[in-house]
């Protein structure tokens, strides 16, 4: 009410009356909604989420598994931090970031370094990065022997200036992965699978004459209960 | 007596074989890591 009255009377034009004093009782502070603008280095104007998915343990010898790295747009990511306190919206500083997509071709480069394990593809993978689009990288890995394999998943961004063609590169992420390759008490996976199938057949044949007895036994127990 | 031994043998072989099959064909445990990357980390060097 006091603010409205002071604006109507033209008193609010002086700077000392534009903001209410914190000690004034009954006067709510005016919401700060005008963000400050600061110039910054060109950047990608999106908060992104990097998801790495890999098998922490796998069987050695025969099988392969997938390592997946996804660079997606984080929909919850706010470039402008905003807070709301008792109904007043306080907007933080807006940093005006020049859009890199407009001036540069952006390419995401990912590489998986995993010593001692077969990795396909072994070289770096490149994928163009567009506004609002995800980039996903897949590697097929297969350990030939048991043990613990350690490696690094690298993600770089390559920028190529559209006008000058100047190239630049930054490392975005380097994540250490640890994968354990196991066998079954020294037996290979193929042997274990074959033994399981053959054993099931033998067990079925040996136990087949008793199927009738087992069914009768189960039915009797059901009737009693 | 013979019937009992045969039944025990059948159950034993089946249990071991099924355990082997479960181990050999179960999916690998997977680990997922999520990392948020701010625009400041994706700017020109």
Q: Can you offer a commentary on this structure?
A:
The complex is a heterodimer of chains A (225) and B (45). Chain A is 21% helix and 40% strand. Chain A contains five helices and 13 strands. Mean pLDDT of chain A is 77; it is low at 1-31, 78-86 and 91-95. Chain A has a domain at 48-75 and 100-182: Immunoglobulins (Immunoglobulin-like). Chain A has a five-stranded mixed beta sheet. A four-stranded antiparallel beta sheet of chain A has the order 2-4-11-9, with no helix packed on it. Chain A starts with a helix and ends with a helix. Chain A is α+β, with helices and mostly antiparallel strands and 225 residues long. Chain A has helices at 2-8, 15-18, 100-103, 189-207, 211-224, and strands spanning 37-39, 48-55, 57-59, 65-73, 82-85, 88-91, 94-96, 104-114, 118-120, 125-128, 135-142, 147-161, 167-182. The longest helix of chain A has 19 residues, at 189-207. Chain B has a domain at 1-26. The chains are: A alpha+beta (225), B alpha+beta (45). Chain A binds chain B through residues 40-59, 65, 71, 74, 77, 79, 97, 100, 104, 157, 159, 168-170, 172-173, 175, 184, 189, 192-193, 195-200, 202-204, 206-207, 209-210, 213, and chain B through 3, 6-7, 9-14, 16-21, 23-25, 28-45.
Q: Give the SSE string of chain A.
A: HHEEEEEEEHEEEEEEHH
**For the report, how would you describe the main beta sheet of chain A?**
5 strands, mixed
Rg of chain A is 32 Å
Quickly count the helices of chain A: 5
Shape of chain B: rod-shaped
Most extensive protein-chain contact, per-chain counts: A-B, 54 and 36 residues
Oligomeric nature of the chains: heterodimer
Biggest sheet details of chain B? none
Poorly predicted segments of chain A: 1-31, 78-86, 91-95
The beta-strand count of chain B equals: 1
CATH class of the domain at 48-75 and 100-182 in chain A: Mainly Beta
């Amino acid at each position: 009410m006091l603010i409205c009255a002071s604006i109507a009377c033209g008193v609010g034009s002086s700077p000392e009356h534009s903001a209410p004093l914190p000690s004034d009782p009954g006067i709510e502070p005016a919401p700060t909604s005008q963000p400050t603008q600061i110039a910054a280095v060109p950047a990608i104007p999106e908060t992104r989420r990097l998801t790495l998915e890999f098998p922490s343990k796998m069987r050695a010898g025969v099988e392969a598994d997938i390592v997946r790295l996804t660079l997606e747009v984080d929909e919850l990511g706010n470039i402008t931090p905003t807070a709301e306190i008792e109904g007043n919206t306080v907007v933080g500083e807006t940093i005006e970031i020049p859009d890199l997509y407009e001036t540069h071709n952006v390419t995401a480069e990912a590489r998986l370094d995993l010593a001692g394990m077969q990795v396909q593809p072994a070289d770096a993978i490149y994928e163009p990065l567009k506004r609002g689009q995800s980039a996903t990288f897949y590697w097929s890995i297969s350990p030939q022997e048991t043990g613990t394999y350690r490696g690094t998943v690298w993600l770089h961004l390559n920028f190529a200036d559209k006008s000058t063609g100047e190239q630049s590169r930054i490392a975005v992420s380097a994540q250490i992965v640890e994968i354990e390759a196991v066998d079954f008490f020294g037996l290979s996976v193929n042997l274990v699978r074959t033994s399981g199938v053959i054993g099931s057949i033998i067990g079925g044949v040996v136990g087949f004459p008793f199927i009738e007895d087992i069914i009768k036994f189960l039915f009797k127990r059901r009737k009693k209960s | 007596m013979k019937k009992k031994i045969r039944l025990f043998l059948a159950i034993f072989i089946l249990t071991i074989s099924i355990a082997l099959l479960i181990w050999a064909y179960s999916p690998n445990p997977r680990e997922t890591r999520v990392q948020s990357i701010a625009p400041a980390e994706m700017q020109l060097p």
